[in-house]
């Protein structure tokens, strides 16, 4: 039997490839010269390949109901390139969607100029001189945060990773640390080039010179000696969790401290998208809470806003971490001493209690527990809720789909209806959590949501968003998100 190739389909694919290829220099120029981050339904298109751009457009069918073609978005991109844009984030997917529903007969150029008016000329955000960032610790989260900071360096007017503080590791320490930044068994190779200047204790990544400072304690460091001023320090060691301990970082050259673990006492626990607007301008110490807290709080807020929540329980099935043992050995915590790659390990999570700090207006009691399982990354939170009113599964899914697409929480909440989705599919997700439509259950006033989350990379993205906010380089998004209905 002779199989005939569909020439029309192949020709269409080649045309879309050509269009995506033409998009890359425009997106790159906007990013480098104007500090504009081009998005597609909250997914950045900066530094993406042709195939990646096409796949991102295809993903739109998951949340918008139909695939979005590059031929639809290219006119908007060209229109953006012709405008005098300032630092901003502009979502091509939202532009295309809102243009389709607009009935005024405007041209693409007219509509685009109106939709992003706040980013044009005198109305735009003035680019700043940049903000220094220091990483205290260079483990799993530290290296991913470093990758993101380097990726987002853009025009050089945003966040600038100036230094990393680590304890001395002996011979070839700098080379080994650079190698761990260059290659990652889970997240793949670093996108760019890395060189090592051992004489000056510096790692140069995509042109960013990162000083490696060796110290056993914050009191040993004067950051101004390295030309660092008014910096934000990100502590990803977890060694200090309260205000007294974290205040040790407030040395010459350091203005604010951000903890990548749940804060204790009166340290504010911030989940970007939910309560980052509550950060006081004079607050110098804050926490980004935990990966699980970031995964459950945004959808919990969304459900509470629409349906009301009377009570809830979260069960996290969490990938193992470096806190556990590879083989059975002593551990100060119960069960965590047993081999992580060989067992499911029942443990505790503080995420449920942390909800009260991020959502103080939510009076519903939330309980929680956790099971560590033998996968290296990506976890799932099973959020069981008693709602304030009865609803249907179809209504909940339609609402959460809309939240993921158009609401102010669209950078935190993603949505998938893939029937074959498994944990490894979400490695590298930049969202705090992903609603699994196929697993969602609703019965009257009871709802169970299954929320995937990359507990390493997705959480690191949330950390960066908080740092951008407190540093004043969190640029506005256009078109502006609208509340979900």
Structural class: alpha/beta
- pLDDT averaged residue by residue: 92
Please provide the count of β strands: 19
Sheet bearing the most strands, described?
A: 8 strands, mixed
Work out the radius of gyration.
23 Å
Label the overall shape: globular
Low-confidence stretches: none
**Annotation field: number of helices:** 12
- Beta-strand residue fraction: 15-25%
Helix residue percentage: 25-40%
> How do the strands line up in the largest sheet?
6-7-8-5-4-9-10-11
Through-space gap between termini: 53 Å
Task: Kindly describe this structure.
This protein has 485 residues and is α/β, with parallel strands linked by helices. It contains 12 helices and 19 strands. It has helices at residues 7-34, 50-64, 70-81, 92-101, 108-115, 140-151, 173-182, 243-246, 291-307, 351-358, 393-406, 457-471, and strands spanning 36-40, 43-44, 88-91, 131-136, 159-166, 194-197, 202-205, 208-214, 231-235, 254-259, 285-287, 309-319, 345-347, 366-373, 379-391, 413-416, 433-436, 441-453, 477-478. An 8-stranded mixed beta sheet has the order 6-7-8-5-4-9-10-11. A 7-stranded mixed beta sheet has the order 13-14-12-15-18-17-16. Strands 2-1-3-19 form a 4-stranded mixed beta sheet. α1 packs parallel to α3, α3 crosses α5 (108-115) and α6 packs across α12 (457-471).
């Amino acid at each position: 039997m002779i199989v005939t190739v569909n020439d029309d389909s192949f020709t269409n694919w080649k045309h879309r490839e050509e269009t995506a290829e033409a998009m890359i220099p425009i997106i790159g120029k906007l990013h480098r010269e104007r500090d504009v981050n081009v998005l597609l339904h909250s997914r950045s298109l900066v530094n993406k390949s042709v195939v990646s751009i096409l796949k991102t457009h295809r993903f739109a069918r998951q949340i918008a109901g139909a695939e979005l073609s590059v031929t639809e978005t290219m006119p908007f991109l060209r229109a953006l390139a012709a405008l005098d844009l300032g630092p901003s984030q502009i979502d091509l997917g939202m532009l295309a969607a809102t243009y389709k529903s607009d009935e005024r007969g405007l041209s693409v150029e007219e509509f685009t100029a109106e939709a992003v008016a706040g980013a044009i000329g005198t109305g735009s955000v003035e680019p700043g001189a940049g903000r220094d960032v220091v990483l205290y610790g260079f483990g799993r989260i530290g290296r991913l945060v470093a990758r993101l900071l380097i990726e987002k360096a853009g025009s050089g007017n945003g966040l600038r990773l100036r230094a990393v503080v680590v304890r001395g590791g002996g011979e070839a320490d700098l080379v080994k640390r650079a190698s761990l930044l260059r290659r990652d068994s889970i997240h793949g190779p670093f996108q760019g080039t890395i060189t090592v200047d051992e004489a000056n204790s510096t790692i140069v990544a995509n042109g960013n010179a990162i000083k490696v400072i060796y110290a056993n304690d914050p009191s040993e460091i004067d950051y101004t000696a390295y030309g660092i001023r008014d910096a934000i320090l990100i502590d990803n060691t977890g060694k200090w969790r309260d205000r007294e301990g974290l205040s040790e970082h407030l040395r010459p050259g350091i203005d604010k401290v951000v903890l990548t673990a749940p804060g204790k006492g009166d340290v504010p626990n911030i989940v970007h998208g939910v309560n980052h607007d509550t950060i006081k301008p004079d607050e110098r110490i804050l926490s980004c809470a935990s990966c699980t807290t970031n995964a459950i709080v945004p959808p919990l807020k969304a459900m509470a806003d629409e349906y009301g929540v009377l009570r809830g329980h979260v069960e996290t099935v969490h990938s193992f971490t470096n806190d556990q043992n590879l083989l059975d050995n002593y551990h100060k915590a119960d069960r965590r001493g047993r081999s992580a790659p060989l067992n499911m390990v029942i443990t505790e999570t503080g995420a449920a209690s942390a909800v009260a700090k991020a959502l103080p207006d939510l009076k519903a009691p939330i309980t929680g527990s956790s099971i560590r399982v033998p996968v290296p990354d990506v976890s799932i939170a099973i959020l069981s809720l008693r709602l304030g009113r009865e609803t249907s599964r179809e209504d909940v899914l339609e609402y959460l789909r809309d939240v993921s697409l158009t609401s102010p929480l669209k950078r935190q909440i993603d949505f998938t209806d893939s029937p074959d989705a498994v944990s490894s599919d979400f490695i590298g997700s930049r969202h705090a959590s992903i609603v699994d439509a196929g697993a969602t259950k609703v019965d009257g006033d009871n709802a169970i949501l299954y929320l995937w989350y990359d507990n390493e990379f997705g959480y690191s993205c949330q950390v960066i968003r908080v740092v951008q906010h407190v540093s004043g380089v969190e640029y506005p998004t256009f078109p502006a998100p609208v509340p979900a209905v």
